From TrEMBL:
PANTHER family: TRANSLATION INITIATION FACTOR IF-3, TRANSLATION INITIATION FACTOR IF-3, MITOCHONDRIAL. One of its GO terms (biological process) is ribosome disassembly. The gene is infC. The keyword Cytoplasm applies. Belongs to the IF-3 family. Monomer. This is Translation initiation factor IF-3. Residues 84-171 form the Translation initiation factor 3 C-terminal domain. One of its GO terms (cellular component) is membrane. It comes from Sphaerochaeta halotolerans. HAMAP family: IF_3. It is found in: Cytoplasm.
Length: 183
């Protein structure tokens, strides 16, 4: 629950609440008025930390300090999370050998950075009658990734989507964890 959703002092709607004091000691079930008065005596706030419990659980604490700690914890968690981006490489089934090697090098670089890669082959005109050529190109890409020592997982094999055949490749766990973000 976000700190903005918490009810404090007179915003608490329940008649009775289970109170925990500033030291973490359980004070038991009290009426809301008594609990707010008890918190005021100590110069602190009554904060409803678990509104879905029966009766709701309220803690006596300094609300400003509590909110600051929660926001600090959220910023820290956000900083440490790993965001995976989806990159896309497009090509045609009539791709030349050198171009295929270049594209597979780019795919390897994206995987090393920790990104997922969608490899798409676009069919135009009569090429649509020969979709097996697209499958061959995708297999060559996977073979070159293996040759170059790039660790990958095949999330989704070759699938036709309209006039495009695509597959999704993600970095292997050992590969994604060892790389650092590049700017």
């Amino acid at each position: 629950m976000a700190t903005k959703d918490l009810r404090i002092n007179k915003q608490i709607r329940a008649r009775e609440v289970f109170v925990i004091d500033a030291d973490g000691n359980q004070k038991g079930i009290m009426s809301v008025y008594d609990a707010v008065a008890f918190a005021d005596e100590q110069g602190l706030d009554l904060v409803e930390v678990s509104p879905n419990a029966r009766p709701p659980v309220c803690k006596i604490l300094d609300y400003g300090k509590y909110r600051y700690e929660q926001e600090k914890r959220m910023r820290e968690a956000k900083k440490n999370q790993n965001i995976i981006k989806m990159k896309e490489i497009r090509m045609q089934p009539k791709i030349e050998k050198h171009d295929l090697e270049t594209k597979s090098k780019f795919i390897g670089d994206f995987l090393d950075e920790g990104n997922k890669v969608k490899v798409s082959i676009r069919f135009r005109g009569r090429e649509l009658a020969h979709t097996e050529l697209g499958k061959v190109v995708l297999d060559k890409i996977l073979a070159q990734l293996t040759e170059n020592g790039v660790g990958y997982n095949l999330d989704r094999g070759a699938v036709m989507e309209g006039r495009m055949m695509s597959m999704i490749v993600s970095p292997s766990k050992s590969n994604a964890g060892s790389t650092k973000k590049k700017n």
